[in-house]
Amino acid sequence: MVKVMVYPPTSMILSDLVERTGHEALVVSKEVRKKVNTAGLDSPPLNMTPEDPKKGLKYAAVDVPSGVRGRMSLLGPMIEEADAAIIIMNDRCTLGCTGCARTNELTRFLLRTKRIPILELDYPADELSARRFVHKIREFLEGLN
Amino acid sequence: MIRIAQLSCGPEYSGVQQELEKAAVMVGAELVFPEVSLDDVRNVEERFGIEVASGDLNLAMARATRIVENPDLADAVFVATCFRCAEGAIVRSELRKYIHENSRIPVLSYSFTERTTAETLLTRMEALVTTAKFKGLLSRERQTGLTAGIDSGSTTTKSVVMRDNEVIGTGWVPTTEVLKSAEAAYNAALESAGVTRGEIEGLGTTGYGRHLVGKEFGAKLIQEEITVNSKGAVFLADAQKGAATVIDIGGMDNKAISVQDGIPGTFTMGGICAGASGRFLELTSRRLGVDITELGKLALKGDHQKVPMNSYCIVFGTQSLVNSLSAGSRPEDVAMAACHSVAEQVFEQQLQEVEVKEPVIMVGGTALIEGLPRAMEQLLGLKVMVPDYAQYIGCVGASLLVSGLVED
Amino acid sequence: MKATKYVITGQDSDVLPSDIALKIYELGRDINVKETCFGVIIDGEEEDIEATVEDIRAMDESNIFIKDRGFPPGDPRRCRGHRGGGARPGFYMMQYESEILPLISRGPASEARGEEAPPKAESVKRPGLAELEEMIKEEFS
């Protein structure tokens, strides 16, 4: 069982296909869950405080906007845990945790430089490319064992 | 309850969303996120004119198109992106213009950091809500009856008494202890007007100390300075019809406000930067060994280009001036360089965020330092007017507006 | 810790959200179920949720997709009703991916049937400069 980070880290399709194969999908909603269930914190909506952009300094310098560093405080630990990754290159409608293009670029970069097995592909546009999509993912995930 | 639509990217992740909500609640408003569909976001290039790389900015632009189509969705708009994000700053500016040009909804634009607090936003939020809520009161053009205003500023406390649309008494003291200074300024104004406190029908307060002073003196109106100063400015400059731009450089901060038909619209407020306020001119005059009231006349005789300034910062800026003096520069040139530095900073920051339309009215105590309006004229390429009682615009505005409440 | 997941049924599925709810009640674990138009949201202790997920997926392997959710169901911090009408950002992503789900569903279905992997995509040949010049000449003549 391998920890596979999916990009976009909010993708239902990727996380489902990963878990279906018996691996653990690293998705940002799990990080959000930890945050919103933290007792004693009341900073809606995500229970994120000014401390989180400071934690993000690990991944981006102080002159990088706070929104990038805040998002990286959620995504960074996931990247560190990842043993493999699947990256969708033509992502769209990335909002919220994936709503910042600089954060997304940094995420993809950090995953690539980690020298873990990575599969890059596009969202399918028709049935044939969808079948190739699913097949490539299954092959990749089974190859991780 | 005033609904402020939030168009933003990043505050939840910077840990400041709670501060935004707090500021809204403090001014009797709530932040809302009007409905927008996936297709609105997908088609934002067509609907708004551009699609950018960051999804949350696209969502904000899509939301703006919805609000413009259906102005009932919100009473005001608050656009906020991370400080230092270029994409965010460009979109923010375009959003502000878009809402301003396509609707009558007031817009506030702000770039936050993780250190932004509700207190920082309070004055701006208050102004936004006032513009949304009190259109009726703000359209008032004449002062009636016998009313007064107190402007409890960070550096000076001012007061006026007005009767039948005329200023009949003024008072001006440096601010030491807020209430004592307010007492002194108010008494001076009453005395010069020849009336007693009991005769005053209504009092309005503004400035940093407005809540404290307002409560103590039983003011009928406690209002932030953006609304009140711009109102006072167009009143004194007789520019209540059509467009006008008010530039208010105070003792510690600065504001630029676009006014239309006597009602303040877009505004920006500079952060607390001493280099872009009267503080810098005060320091300069002390260094030159002249009284602040003489600095302006001195500056008019000078040429700022003869004194290079390396920084807008009050610390480094003053160092530049001192270096120039040691190198033999004339005090006149140094005085004008200081005025130019302050004007240029306001020009490059605040004046890029509002629509600058003539007449351009400069107010606040600093407007009396003649070199400053002259420097602003040079930068804008437009005539800058400084009305009578320019340092009293806050209390004049408050006195004018409170007379509207007295009538009711 | 409590966990929350979305169970989304693709358009081709014969399984209704109410069927899923029923199945969960049958399983008898301590799980809350909230039916929505696109499927259900389930919420309970992590172990119970993980155990239930496999049973639900078995109802229609190719057309049921399961995703984690950070917030518990109906949480006011992200609820439309409390925020002036707009959906939370995660919703749009789900909506976007839901549109591709019918295509994706057929993938696992074919795989399950043991069908051959589809041939590699032919790379699209770009016209050379000479060809492009010809096209321009033709169009503007």
Structure write-up:
The complex is a heterotrimer of chains A (145), B (408) and C (141). By secondary structure, chain A is α/β, with parallel strands linked by helices. Chain A contains 6 helices and 4 strands, in the order βαβαααβαβα. Chain A has one domain (3-143): Rossmann fold, CATH 3.40.50. Chain A has helices at 12-20, 28-36, 51-55, 66-81, 101-112, 127-143; strands at 3-7, 24-26, 84-88, 118-121. The radius of gyration of chain A is 16 Å and the shape is globular. Chain B has 408 residues and is of the alpha/beta class. Among the domains of chain B are: 2-133, Rossmann fold; 146-226 and 393-407, 2-Layer Sandwich (Nucleotidyltransferase, domain 5). Chain B has helices at residues 11-14, 17-26, 38-42, 44-47, 55-69, 86-102, 118-133, 135-138, 178-193, 210-217, 225-236, 278-288, 292-300, 314-326, 331-348, 371-380, 393-407; strands spanning 2-9, 29-32, 76-82, 107-112, 146-152, 156-163, 166-174, 202-206, 221-222, 243-249, 254-260, 263-269, 360-363, 384-385. In chain B, α2 crosses α7 (118-133) and α12 runs antiparallel to α15 (331-348). The mean pLDDT of chain B is 92. In chain C, β2 and β3 (39-45) form a beta hairpin. The mean pLDDT of chain C is 85. At the A-C interface, α1, α2 and α6 of A face β1, β4 and α3 of C.
Question: Architecture of chain A, according to CATH?
Answer: 3-Layer(aba) Sandwich
| Main sheet specs of chain C | 4 strands, antiparallel
Beta percentage of chain C is 15-25%
Strand content of chain A: 5-15%
Q: Find the structural class of chain A using helix and strand composition.
A: alpha/beta
Total DSSP E strands of chain A = 4
How is the topology of this model organized?
The complex is a heterotrimer of chains A (145), B (408) and C (141).
Chain A: E1 3-7, H1 12-20, E2 24-26, H2 28-36, H3 51-55, H4 66-81, E3 84-88, H5 101-112, E4 118-121, H6 127-143
Parallel strand pairs in A: 1-2, 1-3, 3-4
Chain B: E1 2-9, H1 11-14, H2 17-26, E2 29-32, H3 38-42, H4 44-47, H5 55-69, E3 76-82, H6 86-102, E4 107-112, H7 118-133, H8 135-138, E5 146-152, E6 156-163, E7 166-174, H9 178-193, E8 202-206, H10 210-217, E9 221-222, H11 225-236, E10 243-249, E11 254-260, E12 263-269, H12 278-288, H13 292-300, H14 314-326, H15 331-348, E13 360-363, H16 371-380, E14 384-385, H17 393-407
Parallel strand pairs in B: 1-2, 1-3, 3-4, 5-8, 8-9, 10-13, 13-14
Antiparallel strand pairs in B: 5-6, 6-7, 10-11, 11-12
Chain C: E1 2-9, H1 17-27, E2 31-36, E3 39-45, H2 46-57, E4 64-69, H3 89-112, H4 129-140
Antiparallel strand pairs in C: 1-3, 1-4, 2-3
